[in-house]
């Protein structure tokens, strides 16, 4: 059973990583707006950068031996959390509207809660279900009345289904790979996850790298790309396993709701959106939802 200090570490790690991802949304949009780097190429760059950076990090940390039988599990973790998750999401976003894609992303805690109840026998208490629904309502308010409402694109059934499948895949990772997540350090876990993901994806996208006019990429977009790769990929995924190690899967998924909060805050600071009472209510609902799930009987029984 994790200590209170370990649980606090888990909460801070998830808070930091999801704020970074929330900020990454407008930064990524800025990078993609240049028309030089596509969304598919950006995904491949994240996987390649993650592989290289985590291998470098492993050289400065205590060497950890991986059991031979666990390589299959690590491959499975990479398949669901990175490869299938990214393929479904990127393709889904390309087909449907940004609003639909963000709404689909908000369903992660629901899928995780249901799978955790079925597989881990994690009880679905009134507090937990209420917290998930409160957080969902807050996220939907931000999406429907926030900066995303100004985005273009039209709804598409297959795009929505693919975005939903991406969240189901990540939920599978959170629930079914708990033993691997808790067994190894964040650097070891991510090093092998990204390595296997790179082996699965990069052979099919090598031509995309060679066709990019890197010299024509403006300095500010290089800076944005640097943020996505260093903070949005390496640092954030270095912190996430700490939360996964010490907190229940449903609570880990709940922090997903903080991403639109961070994205809205950045949009307001950049002058792309305005502060309103609606956003205050949405943020309050999200934090109330996280608090309820954290205080549910399932969380107390850890």
Task: Describe the protein's architecture and organization.
The chain is mainly α and about 300 residues long. The protein has one domain (about 5-300). About 75% of the residues lie in helices and about 0% in strands. The radius of gyration is 19 Å and the shape is globular.
Which residues form runs of ≥5 with pLDDT under 50? 147-152
Kindly state the mean pLDDT as a whole number?
Answer: 83
How many structural domains are formed by the residues?
1
Helix count equals 15
Q: Using DSSP, what is the number of strands? A: 0
Distance between the ends: 6 Å
Class by SSE composition: mainly alpha
Q: What does the overall shape look like?
A: globular
What is the H/E order?
Answer: HHHHHHHHHHHHHHH
Helical coverage, percent range: over 70%
Instruction: Please report which band the strand proportion falls in: under 5%, 5-15%, 15-25%, 25-35%, 35-45% or over 45%.
Output: under 5%
Instruction: Give me the Rg, rounded.
Output: 19 Å
Largest sheet: none
How would you summarize this macromolecular structure in one to three sentences?
The protein has 302 residues and is mainly alpha-helical. The chain has helices spanning 4-33, 39-58, 70-95, 98-105, 108-119, 126-145, 157-176, 178-183, 186-201, 206-210, 219-246, 249-254, 258-269, 277-294, 297-300. Helix 2 (39-58) packs across helix 9 and helix 3 (70-95) packs antiparallel against helix 7.
